[in-house]
Amino acid sequence: xxxxxxxxxxxxxxxxxxxxxxxxxxxxxxxxxxxxxxxxxxxxxxxxxxxxxxxxxxxxxxxxxxxxxxxxxxxxxxxxxxxxxxxxxxxxxxxxxxxxxxxxxxxxxxxxxxxxxxxxxxxxxxxxxxxxxxxxxxxxxxxxxxxxxxxxxxxxxxxxxxxxxxxxxxxxxxxxxxxxxxxxxxxxxxxxxxxxxxxxxxxxxxxxxxxxxx
Length: 214
Ligand SMILES: Nc1ncnc2c1ncn2[C@@H]1O[C@H](COP(=O)(O)OP(=O)(O)OP(=O)(O)O)[C@@H](O)[C@H]1O
Ligand SMILES: [Mg+2]
Fold this sequence. Notes:
Layout: H1 2-26, H2 32-56, E1 67-70, H3 71-88, E2 91-96, E3 102-105, H4 107-128, E4 133-142, E5 145-152, H5 182-192, E6 196-202, E7 205-213
Parallel strand pairs: 2-4
Antiparallel strand pairs: 1-3, 4-5, 5-7, 6-7
This protein binds adenosine-5'-triphosphate (ATP) and magnesium ion.
């Protein structure tokens, strides 16, 4: 099931907020500014879930809402969704994307593509107990091709699954922790945009490359 997969991240974030609220209150950290900040974080997750629910109905229809969007803005909105969880997990993200790069496709689906990749990195960081956790998101344009690269230093994809990770139900995670749907869904999203997605292991992590024609 795709929808529960897409809701996992916002539900995790909302759970984290509700845990935090209690402990921060006990510690006397809750003031007006705290509440405003917390509510913004909660609202952005709820909005994301609502949009996802709406868009999901159209996922398998070829004519789902397509628009032109700025890649940097989209990446920043994704990072806003994960910022508190990533902070809690000591993960930093470097973004090197020129403001002028635009893509054409379904914005919400593209957000999920990036979310799936960076949340996998988060899982790998935690499984491998990596120190100095960093993700680099870079984009470049060459003629009519846009290249998006997402690289982590989480130790790389296990060799026994790397050739199959874009297929459905391929997972190395225990039941309850992973379903093997994330990258399958990601590949479907890229395919709908007539692009390609590939992965290689580099020195200390995994490096995903998405190629899209302008
Ligand atoms: N950045 C990464 N570093 C190391 N291994 C990875 C990374 N990304 C993916 N993998 C491997 O690829 C497998 C498939 O990933 P995928 O996102 O499709 O499924 P999952 O994360 O296991 O489950 P789900 O996304 O459905 O919760 C993972 O189980 C993991 O073994
Ligand atoms: Mg995953």
